[in-house]
């Protein structure tokens, strides 16, 4: 027990103490100093990452994934599956799934987002597209759950509940609800009609690392939510990134380059690029609605308000697609109303 004058350790501190205890007997074997343990990054989940270093500057990343909120087993399973396709994912040096601790290969300090600009983008996106084609072509379709109708629909419902309802406090009419139901139905049907492949689900500039060992492609992280789903999903994540935006002609150019690579690899992309790009657009609408809902939920439920700054970019993607297809005209009218509401609270498209 603690004395009245001694504050009890917070759960986060208790986890950190437990991580230190777990790392201590691993230090000599792997050549790091436990005293160098320092925060590396956090993400949109309960997971945290720390870095430990040793002689010669070699470093490792320690993942803290606290049960019961997190489970490292899907990460371990996905890491092995992605590795088998030839792409670069972190090696697992030590693990304790019950405690929720992993010791991982360190891909360094440089996500794509930190270095993407007009001078680097073609090279970085070419490498990312090559890796994407590799794991789509080599992924085991029996090894992951399906990105099915229920999941696609559940993700879009986040837009209705968290973005419209809880973030904007928008009063949706019965007609609005019917329109969203119909729109979600159309999007889901389009998504499920696409060829199904291994999908990372967050294949974007924060989860692709510039590795420093000469490997000719990105170090891929945060793949534990992988599924078997629409072939355009990860390309949408990459080119219509929530954290960095490119003009649409540039997006289309990179999409064409991916499409050509995919066809050469024998992937079942539509032979007509125009049809492929329509699939890309409709998948992009699903992801945009989902992400707007997720970012609102992160702000409201988890206090991670920085994600609100990225909503206008994602909403802009949704608007452009809605303007292009007659089926989305009713949704565009709702987006018009949302734009006015966002202006009131300080966010604009």
Automatic annotation (TrEMBL):
Keywords: ATP-binding, Nucleotide-binding. The keyword Nucleotide-binding applies. The keyword Cell inner membrane does not apply. Residues 37-260 form the Aminoglycoside phosphotransferase domain. Coiled coil: none annotated. GO terms for molecular function: ATP binding. It comes from the Bacteria. Its EC number is 2.7.1.-. It is an enzyme of class 2 (transferase). Gene3D superfamilies: 3.90.1200.10, Phosphorylase Kinase, domain 1. PANTHER family: N-ACETYLMURAMATE_N-ACETYLGLUCOSAMINE KINASE, TRNA THREONYLCARBAMOYLADENOSINE BIOSYNTHESIS PROTEIN TSAE. This is Aminoglycoside phosphotransferase family protein. The lineage of its organism: Bacteria, Pseudomonadati, Pseudomonadota, Betaproteobacteria, Burkholderiales.
């Amino acid at each position: 027990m603690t004395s009245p004058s001694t504050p009890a350790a917070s759960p986060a501190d208790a986890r950190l103490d437990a991580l230190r205890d777990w790392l201590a007997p691993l230090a000599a074997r792997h050549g790091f100093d436990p005293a160098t343990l320092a925060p590396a990054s956090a993400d949109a989940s309960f997971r945290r990452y720390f870095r430990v270093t040793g002689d010669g500057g070699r470093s490792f990343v320690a993942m803290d994934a606290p049960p019961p909120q997190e489970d490292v087993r899907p990460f371990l399973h996905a890491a092995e599956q992605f590795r088998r396709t030839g792409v670069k994912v972190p090696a697992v040096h030590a693990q304790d799934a019950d405690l929720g601790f992993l010791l991982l290969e360190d891909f360094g300090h440089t996500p794509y987002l930190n270095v993407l600009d007009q001078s680097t983008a073609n090279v970085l996106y070419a490498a990312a597209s090559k890796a994407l084609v590799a794991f789509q072509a080599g992924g085991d379709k029996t090894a992951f759950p399906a990105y099915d109708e229920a999941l696609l629909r559940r993700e879009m419902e986040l837009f209705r509940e968290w973005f419209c309802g809880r973030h904007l406090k928008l009063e949706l009419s019965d007609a609005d609800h019917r329109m969203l139901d119909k729109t979600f139905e159309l999007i889901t049907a389009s998504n499920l009609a696409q060829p199904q492949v291994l999908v990372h689900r967050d294949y974007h500039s924060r989860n692709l690392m510039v590795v420093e060992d000469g490997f000719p492609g990105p170090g891929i992280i945060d793949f534990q939510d992988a599924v078997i789903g629409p072939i355009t999903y990860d390309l949408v994540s990459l080119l219509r990134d929530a954290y960095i935006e490119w003009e649409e002609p540039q997006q289309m150019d990179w999409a064409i380059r991916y499409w050509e690579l995919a066809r050469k690899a024998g992937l079942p992309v539509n032979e007509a690029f125009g049809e492929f790009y329509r699939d890309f657009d409709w998948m992009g609408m699903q992801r945009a609605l989902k992400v707007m809902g997720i970012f609102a939920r992160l702000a409201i439920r988890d206090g991670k308000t920085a994600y609100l700054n990225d909503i206008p970019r994602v909403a802009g993607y949704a608007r452009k697609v809605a303007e292009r297809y007659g089926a989305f005209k009713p949704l565009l009218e709702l987006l018009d109303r949302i734009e006015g509401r966002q202006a009131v609270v300080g966010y604009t498209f």
